[in-house]
Specification:
The protein is α/β, with parallel strands linked by helices. It is built from 6 helices and 5 strands, in the order H-E-E-E-H-E-H-E-H-H-H. The radius of gyration is 17 Å and the shape is globular. It comes from Miscanthus lutarioriparius.
Length: 155
């Protein structure tokens, strides 16, 4: 089901203006508009820059990003952070895979919203790694903490 508004940009700006009036909102998380696939890669429209510029806090984008594109948009100050959905579901050790530029599991969309306790969220394999398994779960926390403590995130 699609959600349609007669003036989505104006509505977005209004919403961000309202958020900016309230202290305590730590971040604004927005999804990119629909992506298209070109040459087996998602093409992201990057339509959120006006909202990023308008918001006073930390800005998070999501919507079809991979490692390369995520690093690019952070480096170019298009966003502060990138959220990963589908590829994180299929890669429970995604931060480690990104760190090592490792291969990604392909996700199975048909298992995203099922009530099966075994198939879907919990059955994707971890990348083969001889190191301590705890590293797989601590990598993201370290990266976010590092960003905040080095003042790379708008506060």
């Amino acid at each position: 089901m699609d959600c349609i508004d007669s003036g989505p940009v104006a509505l977005g700006h209004y919403m961000i203006q309202q958020l900016n009036k309230h202290e305590g909102f730590l971040y604004c998380h927005m999804m990119e508009p629909r992506m298209t696939i070109v040459d087996d890669r998602w093409q992201i429209p990057h339509g959120l820059l006006p909202f990023r510029k308008a918001f006073n806090g930390t800005f998070i984008v999501a919507g079809g990003y991979d490692r390369e594109e995520g690093n690019k948009v952070v480096a170019e100050d298009y966003t502060d952070l990138v959220a990963y959905g589908r590829i994180f579901l299929a890669n429970p050790d995604l931060p480690k895979r990104f760190e090592l530029n490792g291969p990604l599991n392909k996700y199975d969309r048909s298992t995203f919203y099922t009530q099966d306790p075994v198939v879907g969220y919990t059955d994707y394999p971890f990348m083969e790694d001889d190191s301590n398994n705890e590293v797989k779960y601590s990598c993201l926390t370290v990266q976010i903490t590092n960003l905040i403590t080095t003042n790379n995130v708008h506060q």
